[in-house]
Design brief:
GO terms for molecular function: phosphate acetyltransferase activity. Belongs to the phosphate acetyltransferase and butyryltransferase family. The protein is of the alpha/beta class. The protein has two domains: 12-151 and 318-355, Rossmann fold; 160-303, Rossmann fold (3-Layer(aba) Sandwich). Helix content is 46%, strand content 15%. It is built from 13 helices and eleven strands. The strands form two sheets. It has a six-stranded mixed beta sheet, with helices on both faces. It has a five-stranded parallel beta sheet with strand order 3-2-1-4-11, sandwiched between helices. Helix 2 links the parallel strand 1 (26-30) and strand 2. The longest helix has 26 residues, at 330-355.
Length: 356
């Protein structure tokens, strides 16, 4: 696949995703559609034949931006929520959901016509397969829309965020130069149950994308009791709870914790700190004890280590969606959309089969 100034050559992760989506293209809705980065990504996705992009925003403005940049809009759908034929349908559905929850909404159409809410409704009701948002909005806006409009997974106690990082140039960066990291964006101080759920759900995500048995590291400042702090004890308790869930659900996932980052990723450190660690592979999934640790690690790996980031994926919802930062690059937008599309394939294979 040829690269251009906006889109570098595909890496080990995205190359597989693009090939998969060529066989099973998905409809990806971009809630912040009035952005030249999104328009470029949409045109690229069409050229690659991996998705049908849907841009939310003012049609005339988006088409003018595309024309000024010399970008074709063939097969790129643009929807202005206030003018959409689906608006009244979504309004009625929102009113029904509110009544079911014992609430009354004074102006449901005003709520639904907000771009992020409309995009999330499209995903929830099958008008799109996945959502990407955040390039022109605050993270809280994206998460609120997704959590309000998209049905949660009942077994996940709280929605969280997961990142996928790719850095084949860095030492000890997972087994394949890919790391899955959570929670990097939502829960400030997860409790034991939430931390265990974060581990299991991110492990499932890694299993899907790596195509093999992943290893989860429940990170701490302590390794197997080297420090007896309450924080370390919480991580250990979450590890045991997650291990039990993995066992009960017959998941192909390995887990270790509480464990320091060097022992989780560097085999030399693991040989010193962990008994009989020689047969263990480096961790593929890093679960952080709190949001500060996760978010700081993410930014350092991205901006200092040069790791390519994708996401963050909004985990714990029944349909795939992602929140990207306002500083997002077009490469990250494209790769994140591809990840959301691949998650949509999984949804169609598993969740819809359960509903039938």
């Amino acid at each position: 696949m040829s690269a251009d100034t906006h889109f570098p050559a595909a890496n080990a992760l995205t190359a597989r995703l693009y090939e998969t989506l060529k066989r099973h293209p998905k409809r990806i809705v971009f809630a912040d559609g009035e952005d030249i980065r999104v328009i470029r990504v949409a045109a690229r996705m069409v050229a690659m034949e991996i998705a049908v992009p849907i841009l939310i925003g003012n049609r005339e403005r988006i088409h003018k931006m595309a024309k000024d940049a010399g970008l074709a809009m063939t097969f790129v759908n643009v929807i202005d929520p206030a003018k959409s034929s689906d608006l009244s349908l979504f309004c009625e559905r929102l009113k029904k959901v509110a009544r079911y929850r014992g609430k009354e909404i004074a102006d449901p159409c005003e709520i639904v016509s907000r771009p992020h809410n409309f995009a999330a409704m499209m995903v929830q009701y099958g008008h799109a397969d996945g959502m990407v948002a955040g390039n022109q909005s605050m993270p809280a806006t994206v998460f609120r829309a997704a959590m309000t409009m998209i049905k949660p997974i009942k077994d996940v106690p709280k929605v969280f965020g997961a990142m996928i990082m790719v850095a084949p140039h860095l030492q000890n960066f997972g087994r394949d130069g890919v790391l899955f990291m959570a929670d990097c964006g939502v829960i400030p101080d997860p409790n034991v149950k939430q931390l265990a759920s974060i581990a299991v759900e991110t492990g499932k995500l890694a299993r899907h994308f790596l195509g093999r048995r992943p290893r989860i590291a429940m990170l701490s400042h302590s390794t197997h009791g080297s420090a007896g702090t309450e924080s370390a004890k919480k991580v250990l308790a979450a590890t045991e709870l997650a291990r039990q869930k993995i066992h009960d659900e017959y998941l192909e996932i390995d887990i270790d914790g509480e464990i320091q980052a060097d022992a989780a990723l560097d085999s030399t450190a693991a040989e010193i700190k962990i008994k009989d660690s020689r047969a263990q592979d480096p961790a593929d999934v890093l679960v952080f004890p709190n949001l500060d640790a996760g978010h700081i690690s993410l930014k350092l790996l991205q901006h200092v280590g040069g790791a390519q980031n994708y996401g963050q994926l909004i985990m714990g919802l029944s349909r795939p969606s992602a929140q990207v930062p306002r500083t997002v690059s077009e490469e990250t937008l494209l790769g994140t959309a591809a990840i959301v599309g691949a998650e949509a394939i999984k949804f169609h294979e598993f969740y819809l089969a359960k509903e039938r």
